[in-house]
Each structure stands twice: as structure tokens, then as C-alpha cells.
């Protein structure tokens, strides 16, 4: 079996066999090393998913560790909390009409062309009730986009990824990169170093180029 064809079940079986052939402590040590290696190649988004999983929640509970919740308490000055159900429904109706009601034909049109005036009309009820979209954090948006680009990139014959560093970028620049390592096809050969590059459209989180060098 090739290394690239190994499954998680195969690895766990090897760990268990090592413990049976030597000492139980070796199985624990192998599991620690295996988890560390897997964590190293996970993206930020994937790590958050792991930590939020039911299995990790059970582990935290059994270890009696206090972990602060991610969600911040809702602000008492949140404009939405001051709106009645009728007020929210009225906003939805007005926005829906602005986006999909054709005044000329007097009917709903799911394919209605939106213009600048359409956006102004749809935004009016939100502005009137103090509902303004929060300013997006460009860095956070780019990190999510870069993680998605990495997860969807076809590495081809580059090899099996053994480890990955975090994203590197210079403030004001539109290129992000991360260093990752792959196992060499040759036995006892050092790991090979590669750089995954993501380029964004200036001022946005839109990915325009992905490449490996």
C-alpha cells in the first residue's frame, strides 16, 4: 500500500499494534503525535470546526475545563431588539417589493433587473430603522477566502502534505502565502518545501490567482 492510500483507520490500527507489540504508553504517544501532525495541516476554518465539534465538547466537559463561549452577549442597544414583529415584517415586505415587484407590469418578477435606484429603495426601510450592515473586516474575509482556496486546490502530484504554516502577508498588499511541506516519494528523503500563493483583487476578498511554487 502506498503512503498516499493510507486511511485514518489504517493509522489507528498501526498505533494500536505498536502499543501491543511494545508498551501501552507507546500507543498514547503515537496518538499524540498523530493528532499533532493532523492539527498542523488543518486550516484556521477547519480547526474552528474541530474545536466546535460534539466530540471536543464532550472532551472539554469530561476534563472539567472552563471555556468561554464564542458568541458575545447581544447588545441592549441593538436596533433589531427594539423592533416589533410587525415592524420587521413591514421592512421585509418593503425590501421584497423593491427587489422583485415590477411596477410596469404589475406583477412579481424573480428575474427583475436591479439598478442603483433599486438598491436605494431596498435600503431605505433599513436606514429608517437604524439597521446598517456592519463593516466587514477585510482581513477576516480574506483569511476565510484563502482557507477555502487552499481546501479546494488540486495539488496533483505534489505529494502528501505533512505540515502547513499560517498565512503570511504584508499590510496593504494583495498577495497572501503559506509554506507547506510534503513527504518525498523516496525513502528517508527530507520533506519538500512548497509555497501556496493566493492573490486577491485589490481592496476585496475576491481570489484572482492561486498557485504553488
Q: How would you characterize the overall build of this protein?
A:
This protein is of the alpha+beta class and 213 residues long. The protein is built from seven helices and seven strands, in the order H-H-H-H-H-E-E-H-H-E-E-E-E-E. Strands 3, 4, 5, 6 and 7 form a five-stranded antiparallel β-sheet that branches. It has a two-stranded antiparallel ribbon with strand order 1-2. A hairpin with a 4-residue loop joins strand 1 and strand 2. It is elongated. The chain starts with 7 loop residues before the first helix and ends with a strand.
Describe the structure using short key phrases.
213 residues, alpha+beta, two-stranded antiparallel sheet
